[in-house]
């Protein structure tokens, strides 16, 4: 079924969401009934496997840190970043603009994701954008300022 999804969506529309927890790693797929299954292999080996599926990018989310605002799980990211040949999006834990910048400055990370910062901190989006731009990162330009 996952291969059928790739055939329909193409390599720009299909990506695995890999969720890391302290004692286990799970692979989330939006085509499974419950969306999750526990891996039977180390994360690095699984990264190699999913890259062979002709996917567009990898979205790595730390469930342990998701919603905490304590920052990304750089230990786990560091374990796999050298093996990733596709764009890598990291998520789970960002609570301020410094966390986003730290993630973007980590070699091998293509993008960062957050919901907590934008949903629960009133001016989180404009402050984060401005700080990221000040840090020298390439951010999409908008005609509208905040």
From TrEMBL:
Domain of life of the organism encoding this protein: Bacteria
GO molecular function: imidazoleglycerol-phosphate synthase activity
Pathway: Amino-acid biosynthesis
Alphabetized UniProt keyword annotations: Amino-acid biosynthesis, Histidine biosynthesis
GO biological process: L-histidine biosynthetic process
Pfam name, any one: His_biosynth
InterPro entries recorded: Aldolase_TIM, His_biosynth, IGPS_HisA/HisF, RibuloseP-bd_barrel
Protein family membership: Belongs to the HisA/HisF family.
Name this polypeptide is given: Putative imidazoleglycerol-phosphate synthase HisF
